[in-house]
Amino acid sequence: MSVAEVRRVSTTKVRPASYIHKLTDHNHRRIDLNPWDLVYLRQIYMQRGLLFTNSQSLPRQKDEEDMISRLKTSLSYALDHFFPLAGRLGIEKHEDDNTISIYINCNSEGAEFIHATADISIDDIVSQPYTPPGIIDPLFSLNGVMNYEGRSHPLLAIQITELRNGVFIGCSTNHSVCDGTSFWRFINLWSEISRSSNYHTPCPPPVFERWFIRDKDCPIRLPFADEFLVARNISDAKVQLFKGHEEKSFHFTRSSIAKLKARANSEIVSETNQRTEISSLQAVLAHIWTAVLRARSCLRGNDDQNEETSFGLVMDNRSKLIPPLPEEYFGNSGSNLLVTAKDGEVLQKGFGFLASLLNEVVNSVSDEKIRSTFISRTKTPVIFINSGDEAGVPKKNLWARGSHRFNMYGNDFGWGRPIAVKTGMRRKSHGMTTLNEGPVEGSIDIEINLTIEVFEAMGNDAEFMEALAF
Question: Is the pLDDT reported for residue 388 higher than 50?
């Protein structure tokens, strides 16, 4: 099956429960976006999906009706506590200097809720050698929608797709509204309410006030006389997986991670005679990315070891700030970190060397550095362009997003834990690496987009494959 045939049964708006029952006056609260939020305006909605088996389900028709009704009701109560997700983006024009400001209009217009069916099985999703985009992508709504389009599109869209032997919950969320930490806290609450029918207030509750160093900097003024200029230079490739790429998932067990971490730390001690504490994630990323370099080197015949590769990752700023932002801060709070190294040096010194470079750039992030960058982007806002290889981004870049620390497999909506976590189409350019929690506690799943030739070379790499067999 190349493309899944998904049939929409119904599409409805789900509003916060207090709005439905008129328990509040629901004045349109405004939340101004800060520089951390604005960078994502030209990016596609972030998409995460949870796959469940329905082996414990009751007879189907009655159970389906009950399941959909319960999910809608629990979503409504969850939106009471995460009400910005039920709003839309708003744009204010400033005539005095010909600029615009973008904010979240918490108008309770509603999240999109789609009930769908598809004649596919769980095996069609999880048992393929490569992630099948023609099957995964139709399980999400708002494919290809850019975050700046949140003015006319829902900020949250949920698609519940009933499969032959399971259920897939696909969530599409506007990344200018929240980051992964905020998103998964919302999903955790929704699943808890659905599972228990306990409509309690999360403790502690989300913090919606956006972080600004100086009150006078709010709202951020963008130098666009017309709001449509925010969307300029968008690649036509936004609505499809970039040609020539495949996505493959690699599973690292707790045991394999511990061995990689110990090996990376021992290599650093041997190389520098200094003790550097490499984290589990740094070791895993260095291991898989060094294998990518070896595969590329093998394919091109070791012709240029002086070529450079850039390695990037996003780090949460919450705990780095002084005083720290609360974990419950609802919004974006990330630093984009980048380190560049010569391929030959990485291959010669080993993955422990690359792990040490990642460790160094992570440790370089400080309260002072975060604030300096924030002030700079307040004065001159930066908006990333959603570009792929066709738009000129070097194919050698490797970039990590997501986190293995998010609670993904604890989301039981009332019929058991998910059996897999899947990512939608957002920014699946060459080298994009997605970090997910593994299904067993302490494990990590890595999704990465590369060419088939690189994947085949990695499959023949004994050093790389050994870590997957621990």
Answer: no
Q: What is the pLDDT of residue 242?
A: 52
HSE-CB at 170 with a 13 A cutoff on CA atoms is: 26
Average model confidence (pLDDT) for the chain? 88
- The token pair at 407 is 């609670």
Which among 208, 235, 262 is the end of a domain?
A: 235
Place of tokens 């990642």: 358
Answer yes or no: is 241 within a domain: no
Q: Do 49 and 91 fall within a single domain? A: yes
Domain total for the chain?
A: 2
Instruction: Examine the domain organization and report whether 277 and 386 are in the same domain.
Output: yes
Q: What would the two tokens of residue 218 be?
A: 């709010």
Containing structural domain, residue 364: 246-468
pLDDT (tens digit, 9 = 90+) per residue, 410-437? Answer: 999 998 999 999 998 755 677 899 999 9
Q: Which residues participate in catalysis according to the annotation?
A: 175, 412
